[in-house]
Amino acid sequence: MSFYSEIMEQPAAIRRLLEAVRTPAYQQQVENLCEMIRERPKVKFVFAGMGSSLYASYIACSILRRSGIQAYAFEALELMRFDSSVIDDNTILFAVSQSGNSMETFELCRKYKDFSGLAVITNLKTSNLYQFGRAKFHLEAGIEKHSATKSYTNTVLAILYISFMITNRDCDMLFADVADLSAVMEKLLDMPVAPLADFCEGCTYMALVGSGVSYSTASHAALVLMEAARINAAHYTVGQFIHGPIEIINDRFISIVFDFEPDVRDELDRVIEYTLKYGGKVLLLTQRRNLPERERVMTVKIDCLNGLLAPLAEILPIEKLTLELGNRAGLCPGDLYRVHK
Fold first, then answer.
1. Which of 110, 172, 272, 311 has minimal CB crowding within 10 Å?
2. Are residues 76 and 97 in the same domain?
3. Terminal-to-terminal C-alpha distance of the chain
4. Alpha-carbon span 109 to 103, nearest angstrom
5. Is 211 in contact with 237 (CB distance < 8 Å)?
6. What's residue 100's pLDDT?
7. What are residue 231's phi and psi, to 5 degrees?
8. Buried residues in 150-166 as b, exposed as e (16+ CB within 10 A)
């Protein structure tokens, strides 16, 4: 299976997970989690992972904290070595690993294998991680051999489902919205990528900018650009952007901006203005309509009315852009040489 085919399979993988969560076996895992929550009068949630698994966990923390629930995300190794004091009898610890074989997350689970609040989110039931946890959430993404694509979006959906369930949001509405969004995802994947690549070609630094749930997308997108296409990229919230990267903007700098959180739109617009003021370019992914055309700005419109679901769709143009830029550079984009899944 190629990196291209794994990118293109994401809508189908999303639909597989939507079907799976309705099965008795999956609902038993949900009930296991609900029992763990009932046992904890002052429940708090800690998510641990590495790379994109960690970034997907930011979504859960954002949604839970908006509902007044304590939730934190840590790199698995940092949590194990320095921050383990946050784990107590009121904690539910989610270990998240798409491959189920991330060494740091596996070691964390070994340390807490007898902890009654341990749950796992992983893709393969044959993976090392699946032996742990009272609640086990399977991603249904299928085999993936390259940089995370379908396993990432299915992790996002699993995280959304768990977060909606914990906060008593309407999960049936979530399923309906995601089913509708899968058609939007297919349209995005069919979109010609050459104009995006032409716009970005020659840039030596890409700043991925997003806040709220879109910070997960910015973080994962930067990782994919570095890992799959060897591009110098970094992720920022809209507030972080003026503390550092603004000083290196030039005509080979591009800000890739994810615009799906209305509460930070004023600050996001300032990111765009700063980038243009100092000679850079902007690739804007947005749900806003009727934006005027501007020099050095390319806009990709994404029909996603529920901004909490935006991470499922807004990453897709960046994955296809990564593939195209990698191919133009003569690479085998998505192939991993120094790490293994």
1. 172
2. yes
3. 14
4. 10
5. yes
6. 86
7. -100, 140
8. bbbbbbbbbbbbbbbbb
| Rg of the chain taking only CA atoms, in angstroms | 19
The reply to whether 127 and 233 lie within a common domain is no
Would you state the structure tokens that stand for residue 327, as one six-digit string? 């191919």
With contact defined as beta carbons under 8 Å apart, do 225 and 231 qualify?
A: yes
DSSP 335: -
Do 258 and 308 have their domain in common?
yes
Going from the first residue of the chain to its last (341 residues), give the mean pLDDT of each consecutive group of 10, the final group possibly shorter: 94 96 96 97 96 97 97 97 96 95 94 97 90 95 91 97 96 95 96 97 96 97 95 97 93 97 95 98 95 95 93 97 96 77 54
Domain interval for residue 123:
3-186
**What stretch of H or E contains 235?**
strand 233-236
Burial tier of 292 (Cβ tally within 10 Å: 0-12, 13-18, 19+): exposed
What CATH code is carried by the domain that includes residue 100? 3.40.50.10490
For residue 63, the SS3 value is helix
CA atoms of 304 and 309, how far apart (whole Å): 7
Total count of domains within the chain = 2
Tokens describing residue 311: 């991470």
| Unique residue bearing structure tokens 């790379």 | 51
Domain assignment present for residue 228? The answer is yes
Residue 336 located in a structural domain: no
CB 104 within 8 A of CB 76: yes
pTM of the predicted structure, to 2 decimals:
0.95
Token pair belonging to 151 = 């396993």
**Cα dihedral sign for 52, 73, 182, 121?**
positive
Instruction: Give strand pairing partners of 126.
Output: none
According to the model, what pLDDT value does residue 127 have?
A: 87
Task: Clarify whether residues 139 and 230 are in a common domain.
Answer: no
CA distance 72 to 61: 6
Q: How far is CA 16 from the centre of its chain?
A: 18
